[in-house]
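Have a close read of this protein, sequence plus structure tokens, and explain what the tokens say about the fold. Thanks in advance:
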Amino acid sequence: MGFLVAVAKHWVVIMSGAVAEGIVVYLRLSGERDIPNWSFWTIALVFVFVACWLAWNDEHRKRLIAEEDRDGRNPKVVLEYYWRRNGDNGIPDDDNTPIRLSVEGQEAAANVQIQPITRNDIGASFEPVQKLEKRRPINLHANVA
């Protein structure tokens, strides 16, 4: 049922889009006063086939991405940190708070952006990592504010 819904959505977009309008304008400018029924149904049928291909292509892409994730071909970046307190002041001790970034999967990761981390009133931001190789974790230094 999901495939038919996807086909219907694509078909509606195509039939109401610029391609269909262009065909109608062409037929009108070519001297046709009214568009014959057979031409409308021919255009509609052709666009059903196009909509089927678009729906299939959407599902095919999703499947390929899922297979790559399952096989471990896409890089998975892992950020590990351990929050330890320096005394009772709640401020992280730089020597005892390792922040480690690694990649899992068969590929390296490039241009890794890390979102700032906030805990209570303390926040940390990180510089982007240009390249992260498989099996070569790196330690990060946080800009604590």
Notes: The longest strand covers residues 76-81.
